[in-house]
Amino acid sequence: MPHDIVNGHIGHNHGHDHLHSHLPPEDTAAALQVLATQFIDGFVQAADKTAYLRLAGVPFERPGAGGATALKLVDVSLTTEWQVGTASPSFGSRELSYLPFPGEMVRERTNMALVYVSTEEKSLLDIREFLAARQQEYDL
To answer: Regarding predicted confidence, which is higher, 49 or 140?
Structure first.
């Protein structure tokens, strides 16, 4: 069955105009992580950070907890983490199964959060949440 790629959306062409995704959730998460990494790299390299955010459609105001447009974008937070191991529930035990990574498997991750504030609250929007919402807009 042929696969079509339209606007980054992979699907099967079933003889009608609608394409739909057959990507498992873990592949969707991996694709989103790649998109987030590229977004962060672009932001870091952008000469005009505000223009970059505007071109990407990042809102500079968003509704607060009460629903009114009250939160203002004031910061972009970048954090770097290194995954040095993994932990998961053990079978038949309350202890975690821990696997430290050998040096060559340690991976660096940079995360981005958009920081919004008002006089009443502070809200962080993870860039992956923003990008996932944007991706859903284009997939509809």
So the answer is: 49
Q: How far apart are CA 119 and CA 109, in angstroms?
A: 32
- Residue 29 sits at the vertex; the CA angle it makes with 112 and 37, to the nearest 5 degrees, is 35
Measured CA to CA, the distance from residue 139 to residue 19 in angstroms comes to 9
Q: What is the distance between the alpha carbons of residues 50 and 74, in angstroms, rounded to a whole number?
A: 11
pLDDT tens track for 62-85: 998 877 668 999 999 999 999 999
Q: How many H-runs (helices) and E-runs (strands) does the chain carry?
A: 3, 8
Handedness of CA 69, 70, 76, 78 (dihedral sign): negative
pLDDT at 3 over 60: no
HSE-CB at 89 with a 13 A cutoff on CA atoms is: 4
Q: What is the pTM of this model?
A: 0.68
